[in-house]
Amino acid sequence: MSGMYEDLKGPEIPEVLTKESILLLPIGAIEQHGPHLPLSVDHIIADETGRAVVEACGDEIDIWMLPTLSVSKSNEHNWSSGTISLGYQTLMAVLEDIGRSVAATPAKKLVLLNGHGGNTTMLSTALRELRLKYSLQTFLMHPSLPPAYGGESNEDELGMGIHGGRDETSVFMFLRPEHVDLEKANRRVPEKLAENTHVKFGGSVSFGWLSNDFHEDGYIGDPTGASSELGETLFHAAVASLSEAMKEVRDFDFGR
Amino acid sequence: MSGMYEDLKGPEIPEVLTKESILLLPIGAIEQHGPHLPLSVDHIIADETGRAVVEACGDEIDIWMLPTLSVSKSNEHNWSSGTISLGYQTLMAVLEDIGRSVAATPAKKLVLLNGHGGNTTMLSTALRELRLKYSLQTFLMHPSLPPAYGGESNEDELGMGIHGGRDETSVFMFLRPEHVDLEKANRRVPEKLAENTHVKFGGSVSFGWLSNDFHEDGYIGDPTGASSELGETLFHAAVASLSEAMKEVRDFDFGR
Amino acid sequence: MSGMYEDLKGPEIPEVLTKESILLLPIGAIEQHGPHLPLSVDHIIADETGRAVVEACGDEIDIWMLPTLSVSKSNEHNWSSGTISLGYQTLMAVLEDIGRSVAATPAKKLVLLNGHGGNTTMLSTALRELRLKYSLQTFLMHPSLPPAYGGESNEDELGMGIHGGRDETSVFMFLRPEHVDLEKANRRVPEKLAENTHVKFGGSVSFGWLSNDFHEDGYIGDPTGASSELGETLFHAAVASLSEAMKEVRDFDFGR
Amino acid sequence: MSGMYEDLKGPEIPEVLTKESILLLPIGAIEQHGPHLPLSVDHIIADETGRAVVEACGDEIDIWMLPTLSVSKSNEHNWSSGTISLGYQTLMAVLEDIGRSVAATPAKKLVLLNGHGGNTTMLSTALRELRLKYSLQTFLMHPSLPPAYGGESNEDELGMGIHGGRDETSVFMFLRPEHVDLEKANRRVPEKLAENTHVKFGGSVSFGWLSNDFHEDGYIGDPTGASSELGETLFHAAVASLSEAMKEVRDFDFGR
Amino acid sequence: MSGMYEDLKGPEIPEVLTKESILLLPIGAIEQHGPHLPLSVDHIIADETGRAVVEACGDEIDIWMLPTLSVSKSNEHNWSSGTISLGYQTLMAVLEDIGRSVAATPAKKLVLLNGHGGNTTMLSTALRELRLKYSLQTFLMHPSLPPAYGGESNEDELGMGIHGGRDETSVFMFLRPEHVDLEKANRRVPEKLAENTHVKFGGSVSFGWLSNDFHEDGYIGDPTGASSELGETLFHAAVASLSEAMKEVRDFDFGR
Amino acid sequence: MSGMYEDLKGPEIPEVLTKESILLLPIGAIEQHGPHLPLSVDHIIADETGRAVVEACGDEIDIWMLPTLSVSKSNEHNWSSGTISLGYQTLMAVLEDIGRSVAATPAKKLVLLNGHGGNTTMLSTALRELRLKYSLQTFLMHPSLPPAYGGESNEDELGMGIHGGRDETSVFMFLRPEHVDLEKANRRVPEKLAENTHVKFGGSVSFGWLSNDFHEDGYIGDPTGASSELGETLFHAAVASLSEAMKEVRDFDFGR
Fold first, then answer.
1. Taking CA atoms, what residue in A is nearest to E244?
2. What's the DSSP call for residue F72?
3. CATH number of the CATH domain containing E112
4. Has residue A256 been placed in a domain?
5. Which range of residues forms the domain containing residue E198?
6. Residue C186 within a domain
């Protein structure tokens, strides 16, 4: 049995959930994504992906989706009025409170589905904190891992379609076409950065950046080639991959 | 113009929002509501009420709804596995971060629409903090104020239908009938408490309580008389009243 | 047996106090109260009321008064040089430390007697925190509840004699006549605010305010009609009412 | 002009206080003091000394006494039910809030008059914090500095009359004879400790201790020789010395 | 000019450092590394690598090494007595304090050289915090990036020589041969984990782990093939690579 | 057996350490010391003294030195670019984390060897916190206690050679002659301060100060008479005295 966690009634929790149950927490963000995309992008993608994953593998896996966190740590966009950002301490406090609450249920596996790249390092830190404090098994997945945090990107963007770029724009066009204004988009690829061997997105040396460090428009990548069709393909591929990963989560026991 | 805040694009914020704009933040909760109601009650009611208010008065008033906070401070239900509760510090940290973010937009009025009575005192504290720190005008509304925090209640519940009681159950039956199991509900009114003159819900002396202090079932009130029809009436009355209040918010200037 | 808590000797604590004992903590404030009243108003009123309550009902009830907290959260008056204000976190930290200390004694009932309206919401939050963390039974009383926080007010002040108004000034004139300069007082009632249905003191919508939001003089109400005689009546009425309430506290058990 | 700070009215603050004004904050404690003394000892001594100092030198020096803090950091006595102790963070938060408030007045000199030895190191730390954050000139005085923190002690107690010993008991007998029960007192001097050259009270090596580390009675010294007469002498000597010191505070300018 | 930061005198700071200067902060750890390696491994490697990098490129680049932090966040090893671990908040507080201090010098580039994989995510978070709060350019390098955090590993360890494995052991044998006891080492590779496609070290799904989750010995990898010769090769390669990276840091300007 | 703590291997900790073992934590600082001394002074002196003490008494006493903390609370020098200062909360957090870690080993005695006077009060506070929270026996020693914190000073400096003065300069000349530039040093003794009876270094009234309150050069004392020979004498005397003290630590049991 699977579904939305919040639809359960209080007395059902100890009956329905077991230590095999997986709780899935999608994490969105409300932040500027350039002139072609709304503030909601990461929120919508995290939420829709979470629902699609439950849909796709909920029959085989006991998985319950928690309500999507709409806001998270977006301080690389603080310069842009409209962005709603939690401090890193606040995000961690929210996760610790959720972790403590989850640990009081029979479920012992918590999966964070992170829609916003800027959260990745803090969420990774949280994985260990929640394991240590509450003995949870904790996992971190991404609808699509941005290159700046270790994912891949299309060659045309030189590995730098990391915020409002081709793929993210495409997925959002598939999910919410009415909220995309592709005509306002331009190529915003920091070409010179790609010449570096070490200090670049995905390089051996990471660096602190704000989204307007590269260009005052604040998006990074080339959304001009985005399309709803590509978005559909990417979205379904992500759901399939995440569903497969969810089975590994179900069977996970630290290789023991 | 009005709508969902997250549908705005970054560069639209300084154009669309003005100092007259009202930002509306519904605040829900994920917490036990007895055997007849799901964990989602406060989350759904806050969210649906917020949307209905924007719908009802968005033409006359410049109002933008922020994504509903799904979880908040529910520690009176910590004893009940399934409840997801933020600490008071975490809730305040979230509100401070949101307030700081809002203050960076042109909008200067922030309305909290609180779906969970247990938040009321902390949110009231936040009103002043956000006014002081960020010079915002801040307001707190409730889809229906529970008696324990100053609202009214039907006589049959002796003023104590404060958690999963007749009115809340009715409203939820109207909004999500498929998630209510009224057959599991009983009368859970702490009759003896009503004999007090001072120390009671709505009395001159307030007191610290957990939801299982009165009865181990953890709901307080008498939901047996709930109905979808009553819920519909209450919901529409609330939306009408809140819309009226929103006009006062729009015109508010401390009586100056 | 009743009295001042601090007069007890260490080894007497486990002998004299029992789980029926009530510990009473008056909470004052040091803050501007307009040109006619000193900074001490809330401090003196809380302290004197606490002592009078112990005097009035100490024979019947086992009640021990802790030293009055002289300063608390007065940040609505931060604009006024002279005000000494604790942050909300500091106030809560003080209350948590006191709660933890009290919980180490045999006494299990802690009553906060709040002389300063601006503390009310934070103290209400503390009631639950201390109940949850330390299993104390916790209560909150007021020498007189200001309308902005749910109390009543005389009609002439339109329900807004909330800071330095007629009643508070009268009580202080009774307690410390030498420190009142009534000639400096004027009517400072935000008349226009009373026209609101929702957004007003005691209305369904609360709002964040600083004491100079209404008038730069920073007091709210009409103290011109204050008198020592009225103060005497109000003070004795409050003590009688609080003493009556204290009996309900003694017998309180959540209506079980 | 001098007096009690809280008796000033808000609008008087910028008129009465100047940058030469000294604000005096007595700091007490509520903590076990053995079977012969009540919990109030440090609270009473700090408060009475503060008042006596203002009385003694208030004509010559512009000095205003803030309400005495009744509770502070007494965690060396946490083992003893009845003690009310603030955490070191809470004490610092209180002092930072008071310092920030004081810095908003014209006064620039803040004197802490510490009645409880256990606060000394944290208060010393606060001196610098408040100077750095708020540009205050800050000072720390003691009604009598206990040997464990650098003061002197009578030979008979081997330099260890540091908590409830002869001198403190005597001063309290002078101030509140009705609350002393000298018959319950015994000699509680950790004689062996005095044999150390380095690791002892007042030695070159300080050490962490709780008041029951030496003896389960929790007082340290020999109060058996205490008398009200000695207390009177000590109290007046302290007031005279502090008044003299207050003149140096008035004239202080870092030796420039 | 380059060298050890601490050897500079106060008045030299504004003269010697410029906005081109790079400050290098090696970060070590004191934590269990299995029975064959001492607690010092990460401390020594970070410190020696830092010194070697300054040596290698200090003539060409203006680089000043801060004293190596000896302890950091090692809570995955908290189960093992001897480990000294800072909480994530403490580590961040230390870095914020250092960042604030560095920002007060003319230098604007701060490089963290991280010797302990367990710090990586928190340090990555710090990069952005320090950039945002103090406008520093911030960078993160590793003497060798462990596979669990995105680096490569030899095939024989199946990509899992991440703590006390072949490479780390070899480097330490080169640096401190007298403190390695290779006879106590065994193969501790969680083979089954390598069968996963997603949930594994370096996979698309990361997970929270403690070092004894895989095997109670607490090291992960196969140190049996370690040698001082391999260590020498690896160390020199790392220093060469880091020195090259340091030039990119010197020239870095966000691809502008 | 004695030595460097970090050279121990994880599994050795429960075998080598016992409840008699003393862990020694030297605490340095990186802060301005005038034009004649480098930032490293307190770091080097603490570290070298720690090593010399282990050398001197390690045969008789079971003593293990933890890696020296290089930075600590130096905020009296925040005005001077180059100083690296931890906030008092950060320093306490570091000490609490170390204390918690140490308490997990068999060792129960922790000695702080403090090279920087500005830490003294906070470290003294920590002694009690660590004793209370972790039941450790805690001690605080100084390579030489500065007069401002209770130590003695040569007469020529009027008891005020407290930062970069004759003795400290001499000791550093002995330890690192190549980093001292005595020609830049002048007499910087706040002579007028010595005329005070109460408010002065070592007087009955302590005061908050920053190192540039007395003179903009920021050092206090008269280093012009410093010499390597004097430093050698002082250093050896300190080591001898500390070694003697360490024996008292070994035998310490609160005089029981």
1. A198
2. B
3. 3.40.50.10310
4. no
5. 3-251
6. yes
